[in-house]
Amino acid sequence: MTRVDKNRPSPDWIEQLRQRFPCEAEIDRILTRKLKRRAGPPYTPVSLETLVQGTQALIAAELKDDFQILDAQWLTGGASKLQMAFKLDWHQPGVGRTATPMVLRMEPSESITETSRLREFQIIKALRGVIPVPPTYWVDAEGHFLPYPGIVYGFAEGVAKPTAASSGVSGVGTQMPPQVRPALGKQYVEHLARLHTFDWRQADLSAFSQPAAGTQAVEWKINQWERIWEEDANEDVPLMRLAFAWLRQNMPPVDHVSVVHGDYRVGNFLFTEHDLQISSWLDWELSYLGDRHEDLAWATKAIFGHPDESGQTFLVGGLLPRDQFFADYQAASGLAVNADTLRYYDLFSNVKSVVICLATGTRVPRNGKSHQDIVVAWLAGISYLLLEELRTQLEEVV
Amino acid sequence: MDLRPALQLHTVIKALTDVVLPAVDPHNKPAQEQARLAIGMLHLVAQRQPLLYRYERDELARFLVLADTLREQAAALPVAKAALHALTLSTEAGEDVLERAQAEPSELEAANFDLREKIGALITTVYAGTPTSDLKPISAAVNAHAKAQLLRERVWLQAQGWEPDPTSLPAIEALIGDGPDA
């Protein structure tokens, strides 16, 4: 029995995957970089001092004035990237001397979602003023200054879940209390509508490939996720092969190319508890230009919501009933919600989740590549529940 | 089932070493000592667990050799009659177990891995050239297998707390076949 050694991928194998699964140029570059680095050393703990020095070097390359990094501390949240909060004492253009709270978001050696910091930087910058996002400052796209690639953006006030609410690892299973639902639910829908109607053609999104009309956007995504499955999965799963085949045979054309967040859900926005205002949408690393229905399907997934107190009505994100979510979205965006396309992306979402959780979620800790290996390996345990949901979906369509 | 103890132990050791141990109060000597011993013990378990089955089998083979020798040497001693009878019964049982314990756990894992890969490749090939609507029996077979397989996997990891209704799940013993004591 000859196995491909995915922990030490050969150049030929990498090239075969690139040819077999064409996807966006920047994503191809990032995935290829991941594989080329994989045989290298595991992640070793990075000290705050190292991060401060790297951040100082990054900023010094951009600023001519003197500045100082103050109050550096670790930030928790998420399973994919390292985050450091700090204050920058600097001469801010248009403001003067000030101490600005900022966040450094840096990759580990290999992440549960291997993505482009340049794309993340560009999309957050483009959306400033469209929906709440933090101000962006600097990007170290290739890790010239930091141990690994990273971005610096503004610190957003707020919490990812109500202080008193319970939640599981990485925000999955957050319980939203009734008093926050109306205000947050309204913004949850409105922001998604604004995102999907944003005129991205006017923005600098050079790291994003623009799909042609038709099915190119979804085909790129299927290629991307099947390629990652090939790159990262340990054991194969026959059901996943069936799912990829069905996705390829049933690709819906995109009727309106939108910015898709790619991980639009509770846990990925911050809000201020005193006025229940969403202060910032985070985690843009999976964003792309494509079909809004992916966000709609993802945002309404069962694992990101919960029933109301009666136990009878499922609340999207724990915030509002599903029917209301779609009705409000259509009213706010002027874009239709197509039931067949939504079902397609519902199935697609489960495939994507399984790729992330089961394939990458076991490959990263296998090679000791992240700062959160035990968190990632723990999250991998949800894969079989997701696969069961995928199985029942496939049972209905094949 | 991809979440095997080897991977889980690997991540536990890394978390304890990289994150937890550096945060243990350096002045709390018992906590420092026990944290290091816990990591050391886990290293030992991770190192030896894959060899445990072979170790047990080797041990059994060696005891069977000793038992044969002792039965031969003690056969003429009247005082040993009852003990010899008991040893003979246990030797026969041990020989039966040894005869059945041939494949290594790693061989079982590799055979499963290989079949998964070949089945996956077949599915990809078949569906690439044929509409899913023409392959309903294959789709049904894959789905039926997955239904049973996924139930086992979910029950195996039930203690992680992902299941919305854990009380509806059967015990793992009911899903993976009868053990030798059944």
How is this fold's topology laid out?
The complex is a heterodimer of chains A (398) and B (182).
Chain A: H1 11-20, H2 25-38, H3 48-60, E1 68-75, E2 82-92, E3 96-106, H4 117-126, E4 136-140, E5 150-154, H5 181-197, H6 216-232, H7 238-249, E6 257-260, E7 269-272, E8 277-281, E9 288-291, H8 293-299, E10 306-307, E11 314-316, E12 320-321, H9 322-333, H10 339-366, H11 373-379, H12 383-397
Antiparallel strand pairs in A: 1-2, 2-3, 3-5, 4-5, 6-9, 7-8, 10-11, 11-12
Chain B: H1 5-23, H2 29-48, H3 52-74, H4 81-100, H5 105-129, H6 136-156
Please describe what this structure looks like.
By secondary structure, chain A is of the alpha+beta class. Chain A has a domain at 43-155: Phosphorylase Kinase, domain 1. Helices cover 41% and strands 16% of the residues of chain A. Chain A has helices at residues 11-20, 25-38, 48-60, 117-126, 181-197, 216-232, 238-249, 293-299, 322-333, 339-366, 373-379, 383-397; strands at residues 68-75, 82-92, 96-106, 136-140, 150-154, 257-260, 269-272, 277-281, 288-291, 306-307, 314-316, 320-321. A five-stranded antiparallel β-sheet of chain A has the order 1-2-3-5-4. Chain A has a three-stranded antiparallel β-sheet with strand order 10-11-12. In chain A, a hairpin with a 3-residue loop joins strand 2 (82-92) and strand 3 (96-106). In chain A, helix 7 (238-249) packs across helix 12. The radius of gyration of chain A is 21 Å and the shape is globular. The relative contact order of chain A is 0.14. The mean pLDDT of chain A is 94. Chain B is mainly α and 182 residues long. Chain B has two domains: 5-100, no CATH class; 105-174, no CATH class. Chain B contains six helices and no strands. In chain B, helix 1 packs antiparallel against helix 2 and helix 3 (52-74) runs antiparallel to helix 4 (81-100). The longest helix of chain B is centred in the middle third of the chain and has 25 residues, at 105-129. Chain B is flat. The two termini of chain B are 24 Å apart. The chains are: A alpha+beta (398), B mainly alpha (182). The A-B interface holds A 1, 3, 45, 168, 234-242, 244-246, 248-249, 302, 358, 362, 365-366, 368, 371, 373-374, 376-378, 380-385, 387-388, 391, 394-395, 397-398 and B 1-3, 7-8, 10-12, 14-15, 18-19, 22, 110, 112-114, 116-117, 119-121, 123-124, 127-128, 131-132, 135-136, 139, 142-143, 145-147, 150-151, 153-154, 157, 160-164.
